[in-house]
Amino acid sequence: MLRFMPVGDSMTIGSAGEHTWRYRLWQHLRATLDAPFRIVGPREALHDPVTDGPDSYAYAPGVDPAFPRAHLAGWGEGWHHMMPLIGEAVRAHRADVLLISLGLIDLGFYTNARQTADNVRRFVIDAREARPGVRMVMLPVIPNVRAAGDGDFAREVSRFNELLAKETAELHTDLSPVLLAPVPPGWDIDHDTYDGTHPNAAGEHKLAATFADTMHEAWGLGERYEPTFP
């Protein structure tokens, strides 16, 4: 049984009242993956904007109660935060595939592009020590409102994405492949987010699609993503 672990920041954990791209991807895999699978991780909560903490379990109305809410994601967390946690999380939950969306928080508050890329490498090493055959799909930092209005930050994002492409190429092995997913095609911060950063329903589908399509093209898992789910 394949075990998928979403790893990410605020775009992955989601807020109260949202579906999340995790849910959209679960729906897609359940419909197209011809093999048993699980979504795993040490956390389950959503971000609660009222308390500003990870303590809500109120997904959008109509979310399938069978949805496995597990993940390793946190509001305001990045590679800087997840790197020390990933080994134990992979070991404890026997994750086979890590679906990773990180970097915006690091570059905004904690580390520069080079330091963030170094944390990516340590993250991969620690994940492999816990599970040598673990597979990973990494999303670059996608367009966001801060980069749109801050030239220095936009250049740092561009530099990190270049370094991330190099790291994924160097870290990739046949036993433990590391893939770089593309920025979701047509990503538009005015159309696909509700605040210039966090995905709305359209953005959730696009994020799910870039992970799903990358896994399908590289590993033959499931099918290409068609956003037909409500």
Shape, please? globular
Assembly type of the chains comes to single chain
Low-confidence parts lasting 5 or more residues at pLDDT below 50?
Answer: none
Largest sheet data: 6 strands, parallel
Order of SSEs: EHHEEEEHHEHHEHHEH
List descriptors.
8 strands; 9 helices; 43% helix; 230 residues; 6-stranded parallel β-sheet; alpha/beta; Rossmann fold; two-stranded antiparallel ribbon; single chain
Blueprint of the fold:
Layout: E1 2-8, H1 10-13, H2 21-32, E2 37-39, E3 46-48, E4 53-56, E5 72-73, H3 79-82, H4 86-93, E6 97-101, H5 104-110, H6 113-130, E7 135-139, H7 145-149, H8 151-171, E8 178-180, H9 201-219
Parallel strand pairs: 1-2, 1-5, 1-6, 6-7, 7-8
Antiparallel strand pairs: 3-4
Helix pairs in contact: 2-9, 4-6, 6-8
Q: What does this protein structure show overall?
A:
This protein is of the alpha/beta class. The protein has one domain: Rossmann fold, CATH 3.40.50. Helix content is 43%, strand content 14%. It has nine helices and eight strands. The strands form two sheets. Strands 1, 2, 5, 6, 7 and 8 form a six-stranded parallel β-sheet that branches. A hairpin with a 4-residue loop joins strand 3 and strand 4. Helix 2 crosses helix 9. The two termini are 27 Å apart. The model has no long low-confidence stretch (mean pLDDT 96).
